[in-house]
Automatic annotation (TrEMBL):
InterPro entries: FAD-dep_OxRdtase_2_FAD-bd, FAD/NAD-bd_sf, Fum_R/Succ_DH_flav-like_C_sf, Fum_Rdtase/Succ_DH_flav-like_C, NadB, Succ_DH/fumarate_Rdtase_cat_sf. Its EC number is 1.4.3.16. It holds the Pfam family FAD_binding_2. It catalyses: L-aspartate + O2 = iminosuccinate + H2O2. This is L-aspartate oxidase.
Length: 638
């Protein structure tokens, strides 16, 4: 196949190489077979206590080095579902950044899309997915997900997940924007929370799984052998004990979610700082389609609430797509319906269309939010379908059965990520990805509503058998050389007063304060220059400002005594945010057309020649900043 290779001069970086791959004739890399480029305020959640089980970690070396067969990074639907399958074949350690339930899955309101109605079809689901994805989706991936999806949903039900049923006793299937049929399985407007509950309960009952909460993943541990890169686990910070803990594994699954916090307003929980994408980029994994950042069109606008929240939210409160699917109508503040002016599908248009339409209304009218009205629907049905949203709004003086909801777009989902094959494999041996961190080719240029949980379920399951095969193949080598290999990587260090010049906690406090300011500045630049509507000039401005900002922040750290091998949660998150922001900007500059979520004023039309994924290959990346280099040098393995 023909590969068009484009070199882009990068701020502070010698070169970044983008190769465009044809949509259906994707190039082969290594051994990869094929590539494509809420809180509820009134329902108490029973948090399951998780503890490290000695039986599951029988080969535990010490408190700071742990040996397992499988390490899973992330405790959302993808990570938990995968862990429950591979635990039948070996020991599993799940490491998660905060509490186990704190994931994007837990905040997913809408549901899981799947063909479960006799009048629906796999072909119809495929068509809706491809149309929403602006014809950039990989057709084989789409077919696999739409075909295998119903079985994955049935497995969840068998595991104890409870979904809403209609009066006829059958599953109640909702409809959301971009879908031609009712196919959304849901649990009121708290579907993700219910799935997470069921999976965490199953994990708690599995003696072969150990769950390590409050462990922040720093960098993957890799070595090179016979010209290929192998992953042997990950270094992490135990946030509670302030120790570096090393996990050595035969197989690593990365299911760490997205990078919503590169923007100032996002529906993602605070843990979504792009850690997985950044770690994989530093480990020389292939990255794809990072320009396609989905802004959910309807996040709750606190400014429009009768009673304003007393403190700023860490993440925006999502108003699910299902509200529009259930008949919700969008108005500007003069109560003029505007969506029919932009698209014949009106409120049921895909998210990218609705978000751009709202953005246009806000800019033309100088307003900060629009209104989403569901009050014309029967009160009992509104409260039954959207109890979480109703309760949250009522807390702030708004009754959604009588008044319209103030909404505004917010960063919501990364359609790009670590490039994955049809079984979740990457170009790094022993490293698999699933969920939002992965770019499987399903979403193309824009994700269809409720396809994300479906994709996570399907690819978590598809990654199981190749992971087991890799574990078996690696068993002899890992058992013989795991301990010496673990010792060969230098350990990251935590900052101390002595290491930072003996100035007590003053230097560290200054570093934390500067890091927080820098984070806010980065988010502001991303929103202003790399938001819903873009231009080449604004993207180049963002590239230049981010490069300067990163250089100034790193210089400040190192002047205060910070060493390149030092780690801290806020500093490492900042490092990852810089890495992901640069990947988004570079990918956006490389796409010289408007497609799906990427809209640029300089190239406002679709180009047939542009119907290819944007791919960042590691062999051309020569970045010199701290955020772009792994803390550990890559070892040469025998």
């Amino acid at each position: 196949m023909h590969v068009d290779k484009v070199h882009m001069q990068a701020s502070g970086l010698p070169f970044l190489s983008f190769r465009r791959c044809a949509q259906l004739g994707i190039s082969r890399l290594g051994s990869m077979p094929r590539f494509m480029g809420a809180r509820c305020t009134f329902v108490s959640q029973q948090h399951v206590r998780h503890k490290v089980r000695a039986s599951a970690l029988s080969s535990l070396q010490d408190d700071t080095t742990k040996f397992v067969d499988f390490v899973v990074i992330g405790s959302g639907v993808a990570g938990l579902r995968y862990a429950l399958e591979v635990s039948k074949h070996g020991s599993v350690a799940i490491i998660t950044k905060a509490e186990p339930h704190e994931s994007n899955t837990n905040y997913a309101q809408g549901g899981v899309s799947a063909v479960l109605c006799p009048s629906d079809s796999v072909e119809s689901h495929m068509k809706d997915t491809i149309v929403a994805g602006a014809y950039l989706c990989d057709e084989e991936t789409v077919r696999i997900v739409c075909t295998e999806g119903p079985e994955r949903v049935k497995e969840l039900i068998a595991m104890g997940a409870s979904f809403d049923h209609g009066e006829d006793g059958r599953l109640h299937l909702a409809r959301e924007g971009g879908h031609s049929h009712n196919r959304i399985v849901h649990s009121a407007d708290m579907t993700g929370r219910e799935i997470e509950r069921a999976l965490l309960q199953a994990v708690d009952n599995d003696d072969n799984i150990s769950l390590f909460g409050h462990h922040f993943a720093i960098d993957l541990l890799t070595c090179q052998k016979n010209g290929e890169i192998y992953c042997y686990g990950v270094d992490s910070i135990d946030i509670e004990t302030q120790k570096v803990v090393r996990f050595i594994s035969k197989v690593t699954l990365l299911a760490s979610g997205g990078a919503g916090h590169i923007y100032p307003t996002t529906t993602n929980p605070p843990v979504a700082t792009g850690d997985g994408i950044a770690m994989c980029h530093r480990a020389q994994a292939v990255i794809s389609n990072m320009e396609f950042v989905q802004f959910h069109p309807t996040a709750l606008s606190d400014e429009g609430l009768p009673i304003k929240p007393t403190t700023k939210r860490e993440n925006a409160f999502l108003i699910t797509e299902a509200v529009r699917g259930d008949g919700g109508i969008l108005y500007n503040q003069s109560m003029e319906r505007f969506m029919p002016l932009y698209d014949d599908r009106a409120e049921l248009a895909p998210r990218d269309v609705v978000a751009r339409s709202i953005d246009d209304q806000l800019k033309k009218r100088g307003e900060s939010y629009v209104l989403l009205d569901i009050s014309h629907r029967p009160r009992d049905k509104v409260l039954a379908h959207f109890p979480n949203i109703a309760a949250e709004c009522l807390r702030h003086g708004l009754d959604i059965t009588r008044q319209p909801i103030p909404v505004v777009p917010a960063a919501h989902y990364m359609c790009g990520g670590v490039r994955a094959g049809l079984q979740g494999e990457t170009n790094v041996k022993g490293l698999y990805v699933a969920g939002e961190v992965a770019c499987t080719g399903l979403h193309g240029a824009n994700r269809l509503a409720s396809n994300s949980l479906l994709e996570a379920l399907v690819f978590a399951r598809r990654a199981v058998q190749p992971s087991i095969d890799h574990m078996v193949d690696a068993a002899d080598d890992a058992d013989a050389g795991a301990a010496p290999l673990a010792a060969r990587w230098a350990r990251p260090t935590l900052p101390s007063a002595a290491a930072l010049g003996g100035g007590g906690g003053g230097a560290l406090s200054e570093i934390v304060a500067r890091t927080r300011r820098t984070r806010a500045e980065l988010q502001a630049v991303m929103w202003e220059f790399v938001g819903i509507v873009r231009s080449t000039a604004r993207l180049k401005q963002a590239e230049w400002r981010i490069g300067d900002m990163e250089a100034e922040w790193e210089e400040f750290l190192f002047r205060r005594g910070w060493a390149p091998t030092m780690v801290g949660v806020e500093a490492c998150e900042m490092r990852n945010l810089f890495c992901c922001a640069k990947l988004v900007v570079k990918s956006a500059l490389a796409r010289r057309e408007s497609r799906g979520l990427h809209f640029t004023e300089d190239f406002p039309y679709l180009e047939e020649s542009g119907r290819k994924p944007t791919v960042i290959f590691p062999d051309a990346v020569q970045e010199l900043t701290w955020s772009s280099k792994p803390l550990q040098r890559q070892l040469q393995c025998k």
